[in-house]
Amino acid sequence: MQANMVSAINNALELLMKENDKVVVFGEDVGKDGGVFRVTDGLQAKFGPDRVFDTPLAESVIMGSAIGMAMSGLRPIPEMQFAGFMFLAFSQLVNHAARFRSRTRSNLKVPLVVRTPVSGGVRTLEHHSESPEAFYSHAGGLIVVEPSNPYDAKGLMIKASHLDDPVVFLEPTKLYRLFKQEIPDEMYEVPIGKAAMASEGEDLTIITYGTMVQVVKDVVSKRNLSADVVDLRTINPIDEETIINSAKKTGRVVIVHEAPLSFGAGAEIAARIAEKAIFELDAPVIRVGSDSLPYPFPGYENYYIPNELKISKAIDRVLE
Amino acid sequence: MLKKVFEGSVDYLQILDENGNIDAALLPSYLDDAKVVEMYKLMSFARALDAKVLSLQRQGRVATYAPLVGQEATQIGSALAMRKDDLFVPNFRQHGVFLARGMPIDVMVLGWKGFEEGNIIPKEVGGFPMIIPVSTQMPHGAGIAFAQKYLKKDVAVLAYVGDGGTSEGDFYEALNFAGVFKVPLVAIIENNQWAISVPRNRQSAAQTLAQKGIAAGIKVLQVDGNDVIAVYKAVKDAIDNSKDGPMLIECVTYRMSMHTTADDPTRYRSDDEVEVWKKRDPIMRVRTYLNAKNLWNDSLESQMQNEQKKAIDDAVEKAEKFVPDPKSIFEHVYSFMPQTLKEEMDYAVESNFFMEKK
Ligand SMILES: Cc1ncc(C[n+]2csc(CCOP(=O)(O)OP(=O)(O)O)c2C)c(N)n1
Ligand SMILES: [Mg+2]
Fold first, then answer.
1. Which residue, A242, A252, B38, B113, is the most exposed by fewest CB within 10 angstroms?
2. pTM score, two decimals?
3. Which of A148, A182, A216 represents a domain boundary (last residue)?
């Protein structure tokens, strides 16, 4: 089927619900409205309001009740309407979803996938454009994935729901309808914890994910660079092997993410490269991120999100 | 032993019904004709501004916008009940409150165009910036009210929240806090029956939203939120008594239009329902009342419309001349400029800013 990211995730949810009647989908406006981005469109009509339902407007209880359901044999897939509002569920996620397994020595498990739209570039209101992957990755105990294309989105969603772990599933709004891809009609899994090579080359490595994959690919092709472009797909646990191998191969690394630069995923990646490959580098590792400040209002966002020039200048620096 | 230890009830207040008839026994003595005319004008002004911003949004000249149409009585009635120094904490739909409190329209337009500069609110307006994470403004309201009491100021704080917002923990926590410390908070639920696509009866099994205040030990009232006079009286009385503690007022109104410009209400609600509420329009009933008392006529109406249109058009024109300064996103993060942030700013000037200008 031809699918954009919205229809790919919608299809994954439908297949998961068909496969297992313990899968339930809920959140704000996911029922009749089909979600504000239509990711759950049609699911309530297909599976009924007992399995696809709108909750009262309260993120903490959406998350907390999902944890309770998950510990009781269900496989909930709650939606947080926007990543900025998921912070209202932060305590439940970090204090509980992340810890029930370790606090019971795996006697209890929390198999759930919490989905939320992330990142910006779509000219919308405050709190609708956050890139929160570092917060959740830092907690430990939460798996954090972020697809950059419809194929990965479907396969990662299916894999995430099959796992016995809490998964934070980040969906870049900018990519929801940006392009379509041919994807299989049936179930398939994309591995979690494994990066993809978006392109391969010799001269440098660019490590990225989410909204920035497409921007990086555009820079690489416009400049005709021979580059490894690593699309992480999973932020936590990170695919260190792919990162280190590529860093050793090219000796020059740029890391690009939309989240703010300071204390972001890029810092984690750069540190791992420093620890395991520093003597094989020909240049310092350079990070590119949004600026280290709160996501600005839409009138200013284009000054803030890394653009091609900002990425290109970083590439110049490692190629010097 | 089994005995009743608590009993509660909620009153409902309506003074001007949907046909423009006044319940004379309830009409407050402090309300004169001029005030009712002012209410009418401001409600009309809010609706005209709303329509204008909606059309700007459709032309791509402002970003996402949350219309207020249908909710004018709740907003104007409560705003006019405020005393000069009283304060208010909005969510994201209180454009009418801002307008009534004298917020410059061009500044509001800047906000809708997507600039933080739209949040620079003149002190005399008494408003705090619009807050988008639902209900998270309510604890601020409790704290602002706490500070007024602490500082021995005779200032009441209005905090607005939607029907959906009353489901959030922050809502209950704020009321509970306000009740314990008896702070001068007037919490106003703008119950417009919908939280995007989720109807009021899916938010709570409680019969009224007002009764949520009873559990916090504070006074409560439900009001016809499309009756500007009832809203005005309810909020004014609450403000006058706010030194004795907080109050929760549920204004029963209706969201006549889409949730925001990103929403399509035909997916989840029927036109029939909207038609029912059209008959309860908050502005029409005041017009009927004023006409009957010979306080209003067609020529006053067209004069008012012309004045309001000009004020709105001038404001939009002024806002559209605004030139954003991208450095401002760096300059207002801290009270000082960290060296690392300055470096990021210098780098942005040569990269991100450059592309934008091209
Ligand atoms: C914490 C939080 N969750 C979700 C949203 C997305 N959202 C914006 S408005 C809204 C509905 C609000 O309904 P209500 O409180 O009744 O206010 P209304 O929009 O009707 O004025 C939702 C779910 C949000 N802004 N904040
Ligand atoms: Mg509402």
1. B38
2. 0.97
3. A182
